Fold:
Amino acid sequence: AAAVAQQQDGSSSPTLQLRDELELLQGVCVALSRHVQLDPNSGMNATAFLQRLVQPIGSRLAAQVNSPTASPRTTLPDIQRLAVIVQHLKLTMGAGEQHPIVELMQSLWTYLEAVIARFPNDINTAEQICRLHKHALRSCGALVYVVMIQQLMRHLVQAYNQSHQSPFLYAASICVAEYGGARQEHYPPTLQQELYEMVAAMVTTTFSFITSVQACGNHPDVVEELFYLMDRMLTHCSDSFVSSPLLQQMVQAAIMCMNVDHHGAHKGTMKFLDNLMSYGLTLSGNSNSPERQRQQAMLEQVLNQEGGAMVQNLVRALAGDLPSYSPKILEILWKLNKLYRGNISVLSQWLSASLMGHQGLSAHTKNEFLGAMVGTELARDEFSLAVRSFQNANARQRRT
Structure:
């Protein structure tokens, strides 16, 4: 441990490559954490070690952000060191004691913001800083780190607005997963609303530069992380999300992004739509409370307005005219079939309109597919076979 500390403060010759140094640092942190767990009274020694370890790193960061010659290449190694420390140094604190990693992040906050402001276009900087935030939160635990969450959310909104870098969307999704739906008495009473406002602000920023299919294709990583973030909103903050204007905005965006020929972007988009259909089925099966009824009405309104375009793109994907990287297409159609069992004529109209553009297919193939979707309710495996049959018929037609 002493050797690693000397390596950081420069009192020993810097002979290690960064990768080797990070591995050594990780090993020391893990070993020290185990020692602390076996002997809780040594916790103060671990805290002192942490302070000695990070003090020179913080000093270097402070100098770097003010240096005219600074670059991501000179600042990133120290951010990587910090991430390894907060990820692998586990400290159990007594009641009423502030966690040293919370103190560490508070002391570094200004420098981390300055690094992002200095290098807003460097995605590696964004990735490493967001990785540091993630590990700080998870090492402390959500309950301990709640003292930082409001500051973190403001930081992510500001950083994303400056940089348009996808890692900040990923970090926001971590916040939603950790704090969404939380009702802990130690959490701020406004936390759920603040999570929603963070996401809404980031969506507004996203739609300021992603305004077309071409723009989606230029930023596929942003598309992917945006829809993973919205997927987590559905899972953890559904009350605020489904009842808001964001719902229709995101369904419209998903319909547009289904045209993007990128595996990750397509996968994120389809995962969101699949989860949305699942949530709709949950609402239809459990709409006893007024809040659930209101959400169900909102979702039905959005689907009735946007469902035709969504179904058209799903059919085009099955036909090979749009990307179809995700197996979720079949899942979404199956769940739509379930959702619209009570209003099957609407789904039938959407499908019929979508099939009109496929002139090369036989009437039998179209009718078989349409029958599977809107006719007598099929078992899941029979439904899947019918959809696969339609997909294969389109593949044969394209080869002729």
Observations:
- The first helix runs from residue 2 to 9.
- The CA atoms of residues 283 and 317 lie 28 Å apart.
- The radius of gyration is 26 Å.
- The chain is about 75% helix and 0% strand.
